[in-house]
Amino acid sequence: MSDAPRGPKSKEEIATAYKSEPWWYDVRGFFILTFAYNSTLPAQLRFFGPHFGPRHLELACGTGTLLELFLRWRRWKKLPEVDIVGADYAESMLAGAIHRFRGQPRLSFRHADAAAMPFQTGEFDTVNIANAVHCLPEVDASLREMLRVLKPGGTLAANVLLFPRGSWPLRPLADAINRWGIRKGILYTPYESTEIRRRIVEAGFEILSERVVGNCYDVMARKPQP
Ligand SMILES: C[S@@+](CC[C@H](N)C(=O)[O-])C[C@H]1O[C@@H](n2cnc3c(N)ncnc32)[C@H](O)[C@@H]1O
Q1: In angstroms, what is the span from residue 116 Cα to ligand 1's centroid?
Q2: For residue 217, what pLDDT is reported?
Q3: What Cα–Cα distance (Å) separates residue 189 from each residue in 6, 27, 118, 132, 222?
Q4: Where is the Methyltransferase domain (predicted)?
Q5: Which of 100, 155, 190, 211 could be cross-linked to 161 through a Cys-Cys bond (beta carbons 3.0 to 4.6 Å apart)?
Q6: Residue-wise pLDDT tens digits, 30-48
Q7: 226 C-alpha to ligand 1 centroid (Å)
Q8: Cβ pair 204, 223 in contact under 8 A
Q9: pLDDT (tens digit per residue) in 99-139
């Protein structure tokens, strides 16, 4: 495990750090995506957009900005509508998502800690966790919960922030953004791809596909059949 600083330990501190105006959250998100993750919105749409089973959990959904884009992308691609539960630990983020999707009966939202979710075992066909594994202080317990709430054979899609790669000026810029994120409490820690892969496997998942793109580890993993 790296000795690099990790963020606040308590979920309450993280939830408080995520209390910000929705417009600032979205603008800030764009800069973090571009310069820390070294990723783009189209890349995220292509990765997460196809991965919605008949009953889907969008974990750490935030205000639902990205979820809304996933759903628009799916409509554009003529992919089927599905039942979606969005979950997040920050009440302020969740309130934004509830407001955004009001009047849409196939979407519901629950306040949930990723490490102790209020869902039944085997309830979901798919789980997406976008831009958030590296925000979780209890990542191992959270990964075990993602496995638990999936049906056998169900699949997880996640992108995980890695310690910055590449060269000047992008690497020091990404490092500076990450240090700021950790101080602010919106980032717990970036990972080495080998470390987060090991944790995902130790939680009980089978890796289906994986790749490193920019400063992100994108992974598809499956809950094994008994
Ligand atoms: C960087 S945001 C990503 C939001 C959204 N998925 C997106 O990509 O726009 C990280 C989210 O993780 C949530 N989060 C942090 N710790 C959590 C936990 N223990 N359980 C559930 N959600 C958590 C935060 O509240 C925040 O909404």
Answers
A1: 14
A2: 97
A3: 5, 21, 25, 10, 24
A4: 57-154
A5: 190
A6: 878 887 888 789 999 999 9
A7: 30
A8: yes
A9: 999 999 999 999 999 999 999 999 999 999 999 999 999 99
C-beta of 14 in contact with ligand 1 (< 6 A): yes
pLDDT given for residue 23 in this prediction: 73
H-run or E-run covering 219:
strand 216-222
Specify the residue with its C-alpha closest to ligand 1, atom 10. 132
Taking the centre of ligand 1 as the mean of its atom positions, its distance from the CA of residue 119, in whole angstroms, is: 17
Task: Give the whole-angstrom CA distance, residue 196 versus residue 162.
Answer: 9
Residues 6+ apart with CB under 8 A from 222: 153, 154, 155, 156, 205, 206, 208
pLDDT, residue 1, reads: 43
Which residues of the chain are modeled with pLDDT < 70?
A: 1-5, 7-9, 22
Handedness of CA 36, 41, 46, 47 (dihedral sign): positive
**Residues 119 and 149: beta-carbon distance below 8 Å:** yes
C-alpha to C-alpha distance for 47 and 153, rounded to whole angstroms: 19
| Cis preceding-peptide flag for 169 (omega within 30 of 0) | yes
CB burial of residue 68 (10 Å; 0-12, 13-18, 19+):
middle
Q: What is the pTM of this model?
A: 0.94
CATH T-level fold of 11-222:
Rossmann fold (3.40.50)
- The domain spans of the chain are 11-222
**pLDDT > 70: what percent of the chain?**
96
Q: Rounded to a whole number, what is the distance in angstroms from the first to the last CA of the chain?
A: 31
